[in-house]
């Protein structure tokens, strides 16, 4: 690429105007560019490299590439990006993270784990490079896909406003910018062809296992062919209108939030519900969303349905609402408090390993007895017909590794027998309507793959007895052995 003003590509000019109109990057700005090696990010790098050479801009650019370790050929992408950066005289920072392992560790989808890992990497790279900006290559087609995804997922008003051209990255002070947000995918590909740029193609983009790929490859093309050829851009225009309405609503809602949201002496977020009772529901939802966000809950996980549940707390229609990330909202004395629902127990209550056969005293004095036995249909029938609290029969062959008993921790999840899918332990306990004393006595009995028994309440679906069971492990958990 050259540094002259002659023969500048029209797409470069449009990106330059977008940067200036939205005040995305100041002259002389230090910018970290996220480059995957795909067409969009290579184009973004080429465009910003051209603009950086202009005397009135002079951006300082650093290339950043994260290998997600999801494909065998991903190391080749890192090599390609490194060579591209060297060819254009730029510093390149690369890192490899096992996103699959991260997803399993945090019980996240691959898409979510990849996004979290990517933005964490870009933010760290910017801070290490003393950069004020991180630039990514999102374009208008990405925006349409995001809007569609959020609407079907059950988004609230802010989520339906689509991708923002800029936002701060946490409390780092780094500004995430999207200088190509007003460009179409087809225009970007045409630019790369005009400039004779090469790029890497991720074959997983053609697979519809991931929700975003399904929306891109199936849903939007069908809607465009059957309803409106410009349906994706109609979504973008709708999101722009929603964004304007959201900004207008925020002006009044911020004044209300200042009156009723506070941090109490225990560190919990509290909401005085009295100022909310006579305001429009749209303002009420905005204030509640603001409080949830201040508490530390990820707003990506908060649906419009969840906000409606929170709104019902204002009128005292229900006492509690479970929030994502193991938070709980409680209504009491005309106020709502938002706190972590399940805090780790006292550090001195260390995990203990259970015997394969015999009795042991667990955390807080609970007695735990493990008894292995052969499958006995009459025994199982008697157990099911007269279930004793704290006594469970498990399929011994489905247990992986030794068993430990430990206290609860934030983020714990399991698949309760008789319910559909996995849920957080805190949600399960809240739905069980246990008082604080009973919650404190609950323990997690785990094997190498996670919780098999939330004692003394429910076993995990994974270890239930089936018609193929040949060996049984009987576990008796007595949290009050003196009674």
Short description:
With 483 residues, the chain is α+β, with helices and mostly antiparallel strands.
Describe what this molecule looks like in 3D:
This protein has 483 residues and is of the alpha+beta class. The chain has three domains: 10-138 and 178-226, 3-Layer(aba) Sandwich (Rossmann fold); 247-340, Uridine Diphospho-n-acetylenolpyruvylglucosamine Reductase, domain 3 (2-Layer Sandwich); 352-478, Phenylalanyl-trna Synthetase, Chain B, domain 3 (Phenylalanyl-tRNA Synthetase, Chain B, domain 3). 38% of the residues lie in helices and 20% in strands. The protein contains 14 helices and 22 strands. The protein has helices spanning 10-22, 39-52, 74-87, 99-106, 110-128, 140-153, 185-194, 211-226, 231-260, 281-295, 304-314, 377-385, 425-431, 436-440, and strands at residues 30-34, 60-67, 91-96, 133-135, 166-168, 175-177, 261-263, 269-272, 320-323, 327-332, 335-340, 352-353, 358-361, 367-374, 391-395, 404-406, 413-414, 423-424, 443-447, 450-455, 458-459, 471-478. A six-stranded mixed sheet has the order 3-2-1-4-6-5, with helices on both faces. Helix 6 packs across helix 9. It is globular and about 85 Å long.
SSE layout:
Elements (H helix, E strand, L loop, with lengths): L9 H13 L7 E5 L4 H14 L7 E8 L6 H14 L3 E6 L2 H8 L3 H19 L4 E3 L4 H14 L12 E3 L6 E3 L7 H10 L16 H16 L4 H30 E3 L5 E4 L8 H15 L8 H11 L5 E4 L3 E6 L2 E6 L11 E2 L4 E4 L5 E8 L2 H9 L5 E5 L8 E3 L6 E2 L8 E2 H7 L4 H5 L2 E5 L2 E6 L2 E2 L11 E8 L5
Parallel strand pairs: 1-2, 1-4, 2-3, 4-6
Antiparallel strand pairs: 5-6, 7-8, 8-11, 9-10, 10-11, 12-16, 13-14, 14-22, 15-22, 16-19, 17-18, 19-20, 20-21
Helix pairs in contact: 1-2, 2-7, 4-5, 6-8, 6-9, 9-10, 10-11
């Amino acid at each position: 690429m050259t540094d002259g003003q002659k023969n500048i590509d029209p797409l470069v000019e449009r990106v330059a105007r977008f940067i200036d109109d939205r005040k995305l990057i100041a002259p002389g700005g230090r910018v970290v560019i996220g480059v995957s090696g795909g067409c969009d990010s290579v184009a973004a790098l080429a465009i910003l490299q051209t603009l950086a050479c202009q005397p009135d801009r002079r951006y300082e650019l650093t290339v950043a590439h994260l290998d997600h370790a999801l494909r065998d050929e991903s190391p080749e992408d890192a090599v390609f990006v490194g060579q591209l950066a060297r060819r254009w005289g730029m510093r390149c920072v690369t890192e490899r993270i096992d996103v699959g392992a991260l997803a399993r560790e945090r019980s996240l989808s691959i898409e979510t784990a990849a996004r979290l890992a990517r933005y964490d990497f870009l933010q760290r790279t910017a801070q290490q490079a003393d950069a004020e900006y991180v630039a990514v290559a999102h374009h208008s087609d990405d925006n349409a896909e995001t809007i569609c995804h959020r609407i079907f997922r059950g988004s609230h008003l802010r989520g339906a406003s689509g991708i923002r051209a800029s936002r701060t990255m946490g409390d780092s002070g780094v500004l995430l910018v999207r200088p190509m947000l007003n460009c179409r995918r087809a225009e970007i590909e045409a630019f790369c062809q005009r400039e004779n740029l090469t790029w890497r193609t991720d074959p997983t983009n053609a697979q519809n296992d991931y929700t975003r790929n399904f929306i891109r490859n199936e849903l939007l093309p069908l809607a465009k062919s059957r309803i409106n050829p410009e349906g994706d851009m109609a979504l973008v225009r709708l999101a722009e209108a929603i964004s304007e309405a959201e900004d207008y609503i925020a002006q009044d809602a911020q004044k209300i939030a200042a009156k009723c949201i506070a941090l109490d002496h225990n560190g919990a977020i509290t909401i005085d519900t009295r100022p909310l009772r006579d305001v429009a529901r749209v303002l009420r939802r905005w204030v509640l969303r603001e409080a949830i966000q201040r508490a530390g809950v990820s707003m990506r996980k908060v649906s419009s349905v969840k906000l409606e549940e929170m709104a019902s707390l204002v009128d005292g229609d229900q006492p509690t609402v479970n929030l994502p990330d193991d938070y709980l909202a409680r209504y009491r004395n005309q106020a709502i408090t938002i706190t972590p629902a399940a805090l780790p127990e006292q550090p001195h209550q260390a995990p203990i390993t259970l015997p394969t056969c015999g009795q042991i005293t667990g955390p807080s004095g609970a007695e735990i007895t493990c008894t292995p036995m052969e499958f006995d249909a009459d025994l199982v029938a008697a157990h099911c017909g007269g279930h004793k609290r704290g006594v469970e029969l498990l399929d011994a062959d489905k247990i992986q590794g030794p068993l430990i008993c430990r206290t609860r921790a934030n983020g714990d999840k399991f698949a309760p027998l008789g319910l559909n899918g996995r849920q957080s332990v805190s949600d399960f306990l809240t739905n069980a309507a246990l008082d604080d004393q009973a919650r404190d006595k609950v323990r997690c009995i785990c094997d190498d793959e996670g919780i098999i028994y939330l004692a003394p309440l429910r076993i995990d679906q994974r270890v239930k007895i089936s018609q193929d069971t040949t060996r049984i492990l009987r576990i008796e958990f007595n949290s009050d052995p003196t009674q």
